[in-house]
Design brief:
It is a single chain. The protein has 339 residues and is an alpha/beta fold. The chain folds into two domains: 4-155, no CATH class; 222-331, Endonuclease, Chain A, CATH 3.40.960. 42% of the residues lie in helices and 18% in strands. The chain contains 13 helices and 14 strands. The strands form five sheets. Strands 11-12-13-14 form a four-stranded mixed β-sheet. A three-stranded antiparallel β-sheet has the order 1-3-2. A three-stranded mixed β-sheet has the order 5-6-8. β13 (261-266), α11 (274-289) and β14 form a beta-alpha-beta unit.
């Protein structure tokens, strides 16, 4: 064990990498046992955040509280649930500090100090009480579902959605997904893999339904997607469209040359993002300038209200017929699809 100055310096270096907080076992490794932790606490040189985690300052940041929660939960623990959503920037909602601890991992002992009386507690930056710590255990915390963000161990965005989907209303879940997509955080392949690993978990079915509605082409091959749409058009007694043709310089989903009508069926993977919206508007504008009528529908609209969607397409066909619209055959080049 070094002298007191060396011990203080080592403790300060450890805390400096963790937003100013340390754990019991980290302090012990630096040469400060549980009794000495208590002495430092009583002399206001350390302040208790959670059991077994301490701050060098009386007031601690939100990030320091999150790190302290992970330290208290033990080795391998990560920020999770709504706390993870907050760290990822998907929500500003505050609440308990939520941490996930892998059951299979061996944890360092993180006992509290020996107290003679009530320990001196840290407070938030505004002087409020430290949020309650909620620790959950998991047997299936996959390595791909754990990362580090801003120096804080945290579940991936995909795992975060799997964790919260059973405890938040569907509308709120959709809002959080939209915010994650807007921030460029959603990876649909990772989200589907996380859902597959969590089969049977409460809320996963609802999450999967939202994702399937939002971006059907991540769960269907392009050919399957086209077949489903074409079958729907046939049931509605609509004329057979051309599929995935280059029309007016753009590839379009469905094209009725006899009406000059283009139907685009949007999923949500990028159509709801600023760049996707801008791209779609530019595409539609250019096609309309060339005399085409463009109708945009969503996969959810087609699946949930097929009759209404077919009625919209038919109404646009009638409008095109009244206006005498018809595409020049040269506008539509060879199919790039499977038909």
């Amino acid at each position: 064990m070094g002298n007191a100055a060396e011990t203080d310096r080592e403790l300060t270096e450890i805390a400096g990498r963790q937003y100013g907080v340390v754990s019991t076992w980290q302090a012990s490794a630096a040469g400060i046992g549980r009794k000495r932790l208590s002495v430092r606490n009583q002399s206001q040189r350390l302040f208790r955040v959670y059991r077994g985690s301490y701050s060098l300052t009386a007031r601690v940041s939100r990030e320091a509280i999150w790190v302290a929660g992970c330290l208290t939960a033990g080795e391998g623990s990560v920020l999770s649930h709504m706390s993870a959503a907050h760290l990822w920037g998907v929500t500003a909602q505050s609440g308990p500090t939520e941490v996930l601890r892998p059951k299979s991992a061996g944890h360092r002992s993180n006992c509290d100090a020996h107290w003679d009386g009530q320990p001196k507690a840290a407070s938030t930056e505004s002087g409020g009480r430290i949020p309650v710590l909620r620790i959950r255990s998991s047997r299936n915390l996959h390595p791909s579902e754990v990362t580090v963000l801003n120096g804080i161990p945290v579940t991936s965005v995909a795992r975060m959605f799997v964790d919260i989907c059973g405890s938040v209303p569907k509308g709120q879940l959709k809002g959080l997904l939209h915010e994650a997509a807007r921030e460029g955080l959603l990876r649909f392949d990772e989200l589907r893999a996380a859902m597959d690993r969590a089969r049977g978990k409460k809320g996963v079915k609802v999450l999967r339904e939202i994702i399937d509605d939002w971006d059907p082409q991540t769960s269907l091959t392009r050919n399957q997607f086209e077949v489903k749409c074409r079958n729907l058009y046939r049931k509605g007694n609509l004329p057979e469209p051309l599929v995935n043709r280059i029309v007016g310089g753009f590839e379009v989903d469905f094209f009725w040359a006899e009406f000059g009508l283009i139907v685009e069926v949007d999923g949500g993977q990028d159509h709801n993002l600023p760049l996707g919206i801008e791209r779609d508007k530019e595409k539609d504008s250019q096609l309309r300038l060339k005399g085409f009528v463009v109708l945009r529908l969503t996969w959810a609209m087609l699946m949930r209200d097929p009759e209404g969607s077919i009625a919209k397409i038919r109404a646009h066909m009638d409008m095109c017929r009244r206006e005498g619209r018809r595409a020049d055959p040269g506008y539509a080049t060879a199919s790039t699809g499977h038909f």
